[in-house]
Amino acid sequence: MLKTVSLSLLLFSSILIGCQGDPDRTPNDKIRVVTTTGMIADAVINIAGDTLEVEALMGPGVDPHLYKATQGDLKKLTGADFVLYNGLLLEGKMGEVLEKLGRFKPVIALGTVIDSARLLDSPLHKDIHDPHIWFDVSLWKQVVSKINISLQEFDPVHADYYGRNTEEYLKRLDSLHQEVITQIARIPPEQRVLITAHDAFEYFGRAYNIEVRGLQGLSTLTEFGLKDITDLVKYIIERQIKAVFVETSISKRSIQAVVEGCKHKGHNVRIGGSLFSDAMGEKNTPEGTYIGMVNANVQIITQALK
Question: What is the pLDDT of residues 203-248, one digit of tens each?
Fold first, then answer.
C-alpha cells in the first residue's frame, strides 16, 4: 500500500513540475492535444485536421482498463496544452492523475457530456456507468460535438474551421449509424446474439437491437471463474449459437475456454473473428479510424452470425 501511495505522489509531483511550462516551446508551435484512447484522437483529427498536434497515449491492441501511465506519458501530459480522456473509469487509476492535472490546464472527461439517463449502469455497482460509449454512434456524436465546442473555446482563431469540419464529420457519423442498423437487422433475430470476452458491447447491443453477453464484466480487471464459463457454455448450447468473438485488446484465453467447454458438451461453436473493442486498429489502416473500426466490427459480426 505504501508503495502505491508513494508512486502516486511521485506521479503527481512530476505533473506539478511539468506544468511550469515547456522551455523548448516557441510561439509558432502547434497546440498540443493529448488523448488517452485512439478513438478520441481520431475525433480530434477529424475536427482539427493538421492545425493541431494530436497524440493518443494508448495505441492499437492496448487495454485501457489495465493501462498504467509511464514516465513518457507523464511528459506528454505535462507538455500538452489540452487533454481529453474518456472518463467513466475507463482509464482506471490513471483517472486520478488526469483529475489532478485538470487543476492546471484544460482536461476534459468526455463521458460526462452524456446524459446520465442514457448511460448504462454496471450490473454489479449502481453508481458505476459502462464507459464503452463509443459503440453507440449516436452517443459518440455527442462526444464529437463536445470536443468541437471545447477546441473552439480554447482556440477561437480556428473556430469556424473546427465548426465546418465537425458538421461534415457528424453527417458521416449519421450515415454510419444508419448503416450499422441496416446491417445488423439482416441477421435473423434468433441468431442475433453477440458473445465476447468482456461487456464492452452493451451500448452497441442497445443501439442496434442485438443481444450481448460477455464472459467478464465491464472491466477486464474483473475475474472470471469456472461458473462463468459453465453458465455461458450452457447458454450457447441452449440457444444453438454458432459463433463467439475474441477482442483485439484482450487475451483469447477466456473465449477459447468457452469454445472448448461447448465442444466437450458436443456443441461446436467457432470463433467468428476478432473485434476491436477498447482500441482501434493499426495506424494508416481503415480500422485505425473510428468509422473504419465500427465498419470492420459490423462486417465480422454479420458474416459470422447470418
Answer: 999 999 999 998 875 444 455 568 888 889 999 999 999 999 999 8
Structure confidence by residue, pLDDT tens digits, 84-142: 999 999 998 888 899 999 999 999 999 999 999 999 997 767 788 999 999 999 999 99
What is this structure's pTM? Answer: 0.90
2-178 under CATH 3.40.50.1980, yes or no = yes
18 conformational bin, left if phi > 0, alpha if psi -120 to 50, beta if neither:
alpha
Q: Can you give the chain as a three-state secondary structure string?
A: CHHHHHHHHHHHHHHHHHCCCCCCCCCCCCEEEEECCHHHHHHHHHHHCCCEEEEECCCCCCCCCCCCCCHHHHHHHHHCCEEEECCCCCCCCHHHHHHHHCCCCCEEEHHHHCCHHHCCECCCCCCCECCCHHHCHHHHHHHHHHHHHHHHHHCHHHHHHHHHHHHHHHHHHHHHHHHHHHHHHCCCHHHCEEEEEECCCHHHHHHHCCEEEEEECCCCCCCCCHHHHHHHHHHHHHHCCCEEEEECCCCCHHHHHHHHHHHHCCCCCEEEEEECCCCCCCCCCHHHCHHHHHHHHHHHHHHHHC
Residue 270: how many CB atoms within 10 A of its CB? 11
Q: Could you give the CA distance from residue 230 to residue 262 in angstroms, rounded to a whole number?
A: 9
Residue extents of the structural domains in the chain: 2-178, 186-305
C-beta of residue 187 within 8 angstroms of C-beta of residue 210: yes
One-letter amino acid at 285 equals T
CATH of region 186-305: 3.40.50.1980
